[in-house]
Write a structure and sequence with these properties.
Layout: E1 12-15, E2 18-21, E3 27-28, H1 41-79, H2 84-135, E4 139-140, H3 142-149, H4 153-165, E5 172-175, E6 181-184, H5 196-204, H6 223-243
Antiparallel strand pairs: 1-2, 2-3, 4-6, 5-6
Length: 244
């Protein structure tokens, strides 16, 4: 049932004659609420009663079977002493089988009811753990769970450890800097948001790599240009010698 205050699918906890949300502590309707301190108790009580009835039936039925076997043995011995023992055993065994069937039905049914109660309570407690994690931004500690669900620290730690060991990976275990065990539900963690302005500012303020200026190398003259220049100088010298 969704809590109108914290909007979490959280079970309730009954205190006195009122029910409260296990996630935020807000009052909730008592009728129709799935309370963590009540869940599974009817099945456990029913299973206990069925087991007691089964043992009672087994004890009284066994006594009755023995009594009926002895009675028929005595009555039959008056008419036919040779077959008296066999008749007594058959009658006693017949009632004994009926007693065993009825007793086992109660005993096995009681055990199944008790296990159903245990499973129902565990489901409600796990629901409360996930609801509390959703309210606390995806993580809880055993102390948080014990306080909100009204259970012992040992039971809270055992529940969280079992959830972390499951192969589905819904719960992971982390250790805070102070050594506190923290159980995280990744699917309930708040999404990471990236501020475009911060990214743009970081890009504008980034240091650019300096440009490297390359010094020009020595100029290499073309071989043909050097030959033309030498021929011109030789011709000029010849003209000057002729004038003289």
């Amino acid at each position: 049932m969704i809590c109108p205050s914290c909007r979490q699918d959280a079970p309730t906890i009954v205190r006195g004659v009122r029910a409260y949300c296990t996630s935020c502590g807000a009052p909730r309707p008592l009728l129709g609420s799935n309370a963590v301190n009540v869940a599974g108790k009817p099945s456990k009580i029913g299973g206990g009663v069925a087991s007691v009835v089964g043992w009672v039936v087994l004890f009284l039925g066994s006594m009755f079977s023995v009594a009926m076997g002895a009675l028929f043995n005595m009555l039959w011995s008056i008419a036919n002493s040779a077959a008296a023992t066999a008749v007594g055993l058959w009658v006693g065994g017949f009632f004994g089988v009926i007693t065993l069937v009825v007793a086992l039905s109660f005993l096995l049914g009681g055990r199944k009811l008790r296990q159903t109660g245990v499973d129902d309570r565990r489901k409600v407690l796990e629901q409360g753990i996930f609801a509390l994690a959703g309210k606390q931004r995806g993580s809880v500690t055993p102390r948080d769970v014990a306080r909100q669900l009204a259970i012992t620290d040992e039971e809270a730690d055992a529940l969280l450890t079992d959830l972390a060991k499951k192969a589905d990976g819904r719960v992971t275990l982390d250790v805070d800097d102070d050594g506190t065990l923290r159980y995280t539900v990744p699917e309930l963690l708040p999404p990471v948001r990236i501020d475009p302005g911060a990214v743009a500012g970081a890009g504008a303020g980034a240091v650019k790599a300096p440009k490297v200026r390359v010094a020009p190398g020595p100029v290499v003259l073309d071989a043909e240009f050097e030959e033309d220049e030498a021929d011109g100088e030789a011709a000029e010298k010849n003209r000057e010698s002729r004038k003289l």
